[in-house]
Every structure is written in structure tokens, then in C-alpha cells.
Design goal:
Layout (H helix, E strand, L loop, with lengths): L36 H8 L3 H24 L15 E2 L36 E2 L6 H9 L3 E5 L6 H13 L4 E5 L7 E5 L2 E5 L4 H11 L10
Parallel strand pairs: 2-4, 3-4
Antiparallel strand pairs: 1-6, 3-5, 5-6
């Protein structure tokens, strides 16, 4: 039987058009669909990525403002024009920096309200242990209010009320136990002292708002 010796057909490239002839036109592309109105508006503001970036920045600023308001006490540390509260105690004005606690002006049974003090002030905050009188006097000079209590005369519930009050005015108030106090609670600003037999948060808050930043060096934090 004779074999078919024909070679298989190969795909050959289409020959170029002869000179003088034109290439048939290709099929026209479909026209792009018009953008919807919302997309036109979005693009006019820089696109989705720009909007998201600006939105994130706005959220960050708002979060910072909320954090600041929650950690700076109620309102700003404004200076009241109401008469100062508490007993007036003269210490001779702003005192010098000293290192020896014996040089402080401290009356037995009550916290100091001014006079010579240590070079480093005590930072505002709620402390669960006694703090140096000399450092706190320096803070009073800066307009801070010091709330101190005798832990043997104030129960746990009373301490919690004081802590909540300090948190509300965290930039302007120091809270600490002071076993040497003869009274249950003492509120102190520069050369002013208010004594309490219990925890009267309403009066204490009024003292803070009235007496803060009325000192030789107000507003230093």
C-alpha cells in the first residue's frame, strides 16, 4: 500500500498588503461610560485615597481634643475673681529654695501653705503615700491646690471621693495622705487653708475652682 508522503499544512503569516492598497479599518472601540455624579464629586476632592487621609487626620485631631479635655480637668485652669476661700495664713511671701526640712514653715497638725520650699515641685496627681512637704509647697507657689487627708480619719469610700475629685481637676490638684494632719481633710492653696472633719466634695471643688492659680507663680505645670 503506497504511503501518503504529503507534508502537513503549516500556518503561514498573512502577507502584507500590496503597495497602493489600504488596510481595512479595525472595529471601533466602545465609548467609555460616563462617570456617575458621586464619582465626579469624589474626584474633584482628590479621589478616595485623599478623602480617607483627610478623614483620618480629622479623627486624630478630635481624639486628641477629647483626651486633652479629659486629662486637663473641667475647663481651663482659669483664674477666679471670687474671694479666696479658706483661712489666710501669712508665710512671708514666696520663699527661697532650701534642702533641710527644718527650714520649712510647718505648723504642727496642719499642712504647710507657703514659705521656703525644695527646688523640685511635686507633680499633680493622686498619691497613695505621704509626699514631701517641701516639694508640695513649691507646687502651691505654681498655683496648684493640695488636698491632703489623715488616713486614720477618712474611710475607703471617702478616699475614693477625693480621688475622683482629683481626677476631675488633674492638672491643678495634688492628693495625698498626710498622717500628721489633725483634721480629716485639708485643702491648701498658696497661704490659704480650709479644714474639714469629713469629705465635703462640693466645698472642696469650690475651693479648687476659686483658689487655683492665685499664687506668686501661677499656671506653671
Amino acid at each position: 500500500m503506497a504511503r501518503d508522503r504529503r507534508r502537513p499544512a503549516r500556518n503561514r503569516p498573512t502577507p502584507p498588503p500590496a503597495p497602493g492598497t489600504s488596510t481595512p479599518p479595525s472595529a471601533p472601540r466602545p465609548a467609555a461610560a460616563p462617570k456617575p455624579a458621586w464619582r465626579e464629586t469624589l474626584d474633584s476632592f482628590g479621589g478616595l485615597s485623599t478623602i480617607l487621609l483627610l478623614g483620618g487626620a480629622v479623627i486624630a485631631v478630635l481624639a486628641m481634643l477629647v483626651y486633652t479635655s479629659q486629662n486637663s480637668g473641667t475647663g481651663s485652669s482659669a483664674v477666679s475673681e471670687e474671694p479666696l476661700m479658706g483661712e489666710a495664713i501669712t508665710t512671708g511671701g514666696a520663699g527661697n529654695h532650701v534642702q533641710n526640712p527644718a527650714q520649712l514653715v510647718v505648723v504642727a497638725g496642719q499642712p504647710p501653705v507657703g514659705g521656703p520650699h525644695f527646688s523640685t515641685p511635686q507633680a499633680p496627681g493622686a498619691y497613695d503615700r505621704p509626699i514631701p512637704d517641701g516639694k508640695t509647697i513649691h507646687s502651691l507657689e505654681h498655683g496648684i491646690v493640695w488636698l491632703s487627708y489623715n488616713p486614720s480619719k477618712v474611710d475607703e469610700a471617702g478616699v475614693k471621693k477625693l480621688q475622683d475629685l482629683q481626677k476631675k481637676y488633674s492638672r491643678d490638684v495634688i492628693l495625698s495622705p498626710r498622717p500628721d494632719n489633725a483634721m480629716a481633710v485639708a485643702a491648701v492653696s498658696w497661704e490659704r487653708l480650709m479644714k474639714q472633719d469629713g469629705v465635703d466634695t462640693k466645698r472642696l471643688e469650690q475651693f479648687i475652682k476659686t483658689n487655683r492659680n492665685r499664687s506668686p507663680e501661677p499656671g506653671v505645670r
